[in-house]
Design goal:
The structure holds 2 protein chains of 2 kinds. By secondary structure, chain A is mostly beta strands. Chain A has no helices and 11 strands. Classes of the chains: A mainly beta, B mainly beta. At the A-B interface, strand 4, strand 5 and strand 10 of A face strand 3, strand 4, strand 8 and strand 9 of B.
Chain lengths: ~110, ~110
């Protein structure tokens, strides 16, 4: 069964450093998403991406964040200058159609020191 | 703002019993709902979805009920197994938006 994959599983970085989180969505899916989950809290939407552009974003997704689909398979989330409060699990998801079931990857645990 | 560290509602059931997990959603414009299961250290796993033109949908051992009048969603799991132990989230999607808005989750524990 096709799955969303994410790398790395765990990323530790120093405050102020840039990180890039990587995702490979399910191959025939057209819509891609990033969510995050701070430890013990709800899953929160960050951004959705379709047709090589951002289609929706939350207030969390400020100028420090960017997304890219650099090739036909990868989907990345970049945080330019990490803050302590960026420490969280970051989940990539994809869906075949808009407003249909979203399938989540296993997540990247980001720890900012 | 939200408090740090949610205290999840918990539900404990005996293996083999049925369980019902409830969710109240907030936005009357939401018309698509998904239940996810999250095991420790893993991503949310799709269980079942329902659109607002239905009030019930069944899957394998699971049933989702939707009551739009009171903005309530429930997930029924039949004949629970130890592998059903996890946190269960409902997520809602508002018409016109792409994002899912997740509820706070319920921790289900299956006792042997």
């Amino acid at each position: 069964e096709p799955e969303v994959t994410q790398t790395p599983s765990h990323q530790v970085t120093q405050m102020g450093q840039e990180v890039i989180l990587r995702c490979v969505p399910i191959s025939n899916h057209l819509y891609f998403y990033w969510y995050r989950q701070i430890l013990g809290q709800k899953v929160e939407f960050l951004v959705s991406f379709y047709n090589n552009e951002i289609s929706e974003k939350s207030e969390i997704f400020d100028d420090q964040f960017s997304v890219e689909r650099p090739d036909g398979s990868n989907f990345t989330l970049k945080i330019r200058s990490t803050k302590l409060e960026d420490s969280a699990m970051y989940f990539c998801a994809s869906s075949e159609e808009v407003r249909s079931k979203q399938f989540f990857g296993p997540g990247t645990r980001l720890t900012v020191l | 703002g939200e408090s740090v560290g949610l205290h999840l509602p918990t539900l404990s059931v005996q293996e083999g019993d049925n369980s019902i997990i409830n969710c109240a959603y907030s936005n009357s414009a939401s018309d698509y709902f998904i239940w996810y299961k999250q095991e420790s250290g893993k991503g949310p796993q799709f269980i079942i979805d329902i659109r607002s033109n239905m009030d019930k949908r069944q899957g394998q051992r699971v049933t989702v009920l939707l009551n739009k009048t009171v903005k309530h969603l429930s997930l029924q799991i039949a004949a629970t197994q130890p592998g059903d132990s996890a946190v269960y989230f409902c997520a809602e999607n508002v018409q016109g938006a792409q994002k899912l808005v997740f509820g706070q989750g319920t921790r289900l524990t299956i006792n042997p």
